[in-house]
Structures are given as C-alpha cells and as structure tokens.
Specification:
Helix content: 40-55%
Number of strands: 10
Radius of gyration: 77 Å
Strand content: 15-25%
Largest sheet: 6 strands, antiparallel
Low-confidence stretches: 1-10, 49-76
Mean pLDDT: 75
Order of helices and strands: HHEEEEEEEEEE
C-alpha cells in the first residue's frame, strides 16, 4: 500500500513539470510570435506613415517649386527691346566772311568814272539850212577806222561819194533836198551802218527838214 501511494505521489509531480515546461514553451512561442507580429505591424505602420509623410512632403515641394517654374518660364520669354533713337545735333559750320578785294584807289576812281560817265554820243550828221536855197547843207562824219571811206544813198544817185580824213574822223558835206533818206558807209569795200543814226531795214536813216 505504501508503494502504490508513493507511485501515485510521483506521477502527479512529473505531470506538473511537463505542464510547466509546456506552458513556458507556449509563453516563449507567444512572445516570439507576438514579437514578429509587433515587428510586422510596426513596420507596416511606420512604412505607411513614412510613405504618407513622403508624399505630403513631395506635394509641398511641388507646390513650392511651381511658382519658381512660372518665374523661369516668364524669364525665358524674349525681351522686347525698344530701340532708342538718338538725335544727332546739327553741326553748324561757321565760315569766315570773304574778305573784300582791296583795289588801288586809282582803279576804283577809274571804275567809278567809267560807270557814272557814259560814252558821249557823237554827232555824225549835221544839217545847215540856207534861206536863199531849197537845198540843205548836210555834213556826214565817220568816226571809225578805215583806209577808204565812202557814202552811198539816194541823194548820191546810188553812186558812192568819198569822205575826207580830218583828224580823228572822216567827213563830207553834200547839198540835199529836204526829206528822209537811207544811207550806208562803205569802209574799205564793206557796207557799214552809222552807229549814231537811226536804223531801218538794215540801213541808217537821216531826216532832213
């Protein structure tokens, strides 16, 4: 009876140790499992939050960079430069007044005399009346150059009449009836008009009253 009692006492002690061992193992396994579950959950939680934070940060960066991109695009536009027209000032060249030509006093006096004193008109035809005769004494004078001087007209019957050299001119006196006559001088064989008498139809004219 004692042996049986001893066996009965021993068996429960062994079972107790086994149960304790199993409980310890279960606790260890639970701890390990719980650790892995905790680690997984923590990784997933931290990873998700990190991802969300990362996305949020990236969005914030994009929002901040957007204005800069706009500024860059505006700056990239070609700048229209308005040309500035510079008006050149007119340069006025001042030239000295031309100096008057200085002439000798004699030359000036001679020019003044020449301008103020026109050439004197010479009397080339002189008519003298005769109360006792109807003819007039008419004297013709040639003041030009020549070696042989003649006069021809209707009062000479178209025959040349010679003039005589007297000082600085040639001269002749004829008796002519009153009237209007055309005449020419013949100077060394060339017909010439009297420069001091009226002219008509290419000849000189004399009016005898």
């Amino acid at each position: 009876m004692e042996k049986e009692d001893l066996d009965l006492d021993v068996k429960p002690a062994g079972n107790k140790d086994l149960w304790l061992f199993l409980i310890v193992i279960d606790m260890v396994l639970l701890c390990v499992f719980g650790f892995f579950v905790y680690q997984r959950l923590s990784n997933s939680v931290f990873h998700t939050s990190g991802t969300q934070d990362g996305v949020a940060v990236e969005e914030e960066v994009v929002q901040e960079v957007a204005p800069e991109s706009e500024v860059i695009s505006v700056a990239a536009e070609p700048e229209i430069v308005t040309p500035v027209v510079v008006q050149e000032e007119a340069v006025v060249e001042i030239k000295p007044a031309p100096q008057p030509e200085i002439k000798p006093v004699e030359t000036i006096v001679q020019e003044v005399i020449t301008e103020e004193a026109p050439a004197e008109k010479k009397v080339s035809v002189t008519v003298t009346a005769n109360a006792k005769s109807k003819y007039r004494r008419v004297t013709f004078r040639w003041f030009g150059e020549g070696k042989k001087v003649q006069i021809v007209s209707g009062f000479t019957m178209s025959k040349p009449q010679a003039l005589t050299k007297k000082g600085d001119h040639w001269e002749t006196t004829l008796s002519i009836l009153p009237g209007t006559y055309k005449f020419l001088y013949i100077i060394d064989g060339v017909n010439q008009k009297d420069p001091y008498s009226p002219e008509k139809d290419g000849r000189s004219v004399v009016i005898i009253d």
